[in-house]
Design goal:
By secondary structure, the chain is of the alpha/beta class. The protein has a domain of 173 residues: P-loop containing nucleotide triphosphate hydrolases (Rossmann fold). It has twelve helices and twelve strands. Strand 4 and strand 5 form a beta hairpin. Helix 6 crosses helix 8. It binds adenosine-5'-diphosphate, iron/sulfur cluster (SF4) and magnesium ion (MG). Adenosine-5'-diphosphate (ADP) binds next to strand 2 and helix 1.
Length: 321
């Protein structure tokens, strides 16, 4: 299958605000040399502990990072490097060809507008609201796709009248309104109860089957990822440390961090990884995982391992592959 998105050597850094008087500003490299690709119709999951840089990658692709961030590398999409597009060109792509479902549905929806009004937003932005009737039927179609059998009634609702789960489905409807070729879902299952996670999974499954959309699925929920992803990329402290198909990753993890992450799951014994992630303002020399790695060697503390690839898997560790 053809490659849809290719991220090459992405680096994102921020100048942290002075926290204390007299203290130097710190440079935080949140994403460090990240490379991965997503093929047409593929679901790639990005997993890793909170703060490892997943949302920063998503926002870099959408070009939604704050102005003070410094971004290097390339993000190729449809033959163009997204990082070189003007804001006007990017606005044409956003919501139409590339769309994002943000983490928190209640913050992403505007409380003062009806659901119908908000769902018609992508049509207005992309000049597709020529006739009121066409717009209404498109919004109704999108609501039906996410399981609302009486869409016209829900169009009159406001976000505060609805449950978190319903609002999440409205957001999915809004982000898929114009059939984007790439959908980014940033922690879509966070804060949802078990039933809602199962429903969300069905909605994303349906989307995968019925459309041509590729999905970048960001989640800390490994069960969810295992069921939906075609490939999984594991991030640690701003770097990708392993990329694999889900069955190999979950049954035969290679990187010591991936092994630790899986061992910390309740169903696998709840064994935590000792220590904590390093501060991104001063990551350790060599392999960023070495202070927590149970099998480290001397060179791990001095040299940075590169992402080695073999048989469709990739791993950043001197001892693997
Ligand atoms: N706007 C910002 N300014 C400064 N640092 C930021 C900003 N956004 C993110 N970061 C840094 O990037 C790191 C990764 O953040 P994020 O991508 O949100 O992590 P997660 O993997 O939980 O999605 C954070 O720990 C933080 O240090
Ligand atoms: S490179 Fe060394 S420290 Fe890093 S994960 Fe591999 S063995 Fe552990
Ligand atoms: Mg995040």
């Amino acid at each position: 299958m053809k490659t849809l998105l290719e991220v090459k050597d992405l680096n994102v850094s921020f100048q942290e605000n002075e926290k204390e008087k007299g203290k130097e500003k710190e440079n935080v490299t949140a994403v460090f040399g990240v490379s991965f690709s997503i093929r047409e119709k593929e679901t790639l999951a990005l997993v890793g502990e909170t703060g490892c840089g997943k949302s920063v990658v998503a926002h870099a692709i959408m070009r939604l990072l704050p102005l003070e961030s410094r971004v290097k590398g390339t993000i190729e999409f449809g033959g163009k490097n997204l990082l070189e597009l003007s804001e006007k060109e990017m606005t044409k792509l956003r919501g139409k060809e590339i769309s994002i479902i943000f983490q928190n549905p209640s913050l992403a929806l505007n409380p003062v507008y009806s659901i119908g009004h908000q769902l018609a937003e992508p049509l207005r932005i992309h000049g597709q609201k020529k006739k009121e009737n066409t717009s209404l039927s498109k919004v109704a179609g999108a609501l039906k796709r996410v399981g609302f059998s009486n869409p016209h009634e829900y169009m009159r609702y406001y976000p505060s009248w609805c449950s978190g789960g319903m609002n999440q489905r409205f957001l999915i409807a809004a982000s898929t309104m114009l059939n984007p070729v790439l959908l980014i879902a940033d922690e879509p299952s966070k804060g949802l109860d078990r039933n809602r996670v199962a429903e969300l999974e069905n909605e994303l499954e349906g989307l995968k089957e019925k459309s041509e959309t590729s999905l970048l699925l960001i989640s800390h929920d490994l069960g969810f990822v295992r069921r939906l992803a075609d490939r999984v990329a594991v991030m640690y402290a701003g770097e990708i440390v392993e990329i694999s198909d889900p069955s190999n990753l979950f049954e035969r993890p290679l990187h010591p961090y991936t092994r630790g992450l899986l061992n910390s799951l309740p169903e696998r014994g709840f064994v935590p990884i000792p220590g904590s992630s390093p501060p991104l303002s001063s990551p350790p020399e060599g392999c960023r995982f070495h202070p927590r790695c149970p099998v480290k060697e001397k060179r791990c503390m001095q040299e940075r391992p590169y992402l080695k690839e073999s048989n469709g898997r990739a791993v950043r560790c001197f001892l693997c592959l």
